[in-house]
Amino acid sequence: MRRSGYHIKKTTRNRKAESGKSVEEFIREARSLGGKEGYREQSLRIHGLICAKCAREFEDKDRHLLTVHHKDGNPRNNPPDGSNWENLCVYCHDDEHSRGLLADYLDRGK
Predict the structure, then answer these.
(1) Whole-angstrom Cα distance, residue 11 to residue 23?
(2) pTM, whole model, 2 decimals?
(3) C or N: which end of the chain has fewer Cβ atoms within 10 Å?
(4) Helix (H, G, I), strand (E, B), or coil: what is residue 50?
(5) What is the pLDDT of residues 30-60, one digit of tens each?
(6) Domain boundaries in the chain?
(7) Could you give the dihedral angle defined by the CA atoms of residues 43, 45, 49 and 50, in that order, rounded to the nearest 10 degrees?
(8) CA distance 71 to 90
């Protein structure tokens, strides 16, 4: 039986991604960030285990029910002082984003 139509094209080892970084540079950067505390943990530490919207308090065992909401909507804006974050329970976080979708939908009708 004869196979046809499949060819594997080899690429150079230091192939650049769209950002201009090589794979090795991405790996090096990811490893260097690995030891740093993530913004979620920072926000939980700074603001406490309390939902900023409904004021429900959470125990440490239920911390997975809290999410970090970016006030300006930009998930890359993570200042170390936590000024762009608010801890929201999963229900309030869903509500917050649903309101934006509903507002966008209603604005289209105008």
Answers:
(1) 12
(2) 0.60
(3) N
(4) strand
(5) 666 554 568 999 999 999 999 999 999 999 9
(6) 23-108
(7) -60
(8) 15
Residue 22's Cβ-count burial label (10 Å; 0-12, 13-18, 19+) is: middle
Place of tokens 């979620």: 40
H/E element holding 43? helix 39-47
93 Cβ partners below 8 Å, 6+ apart?
Answer: 67, 69
User: Which position has the token pair 């009708």?
Assistant: 109
pLDDT digits (tens, 9 = 90+) for 58-110: 999 999 999 999 999 999 899 989 999 999 999 999 998 888 777 777 778 66
CB 51 within 8 A of CB 13: no
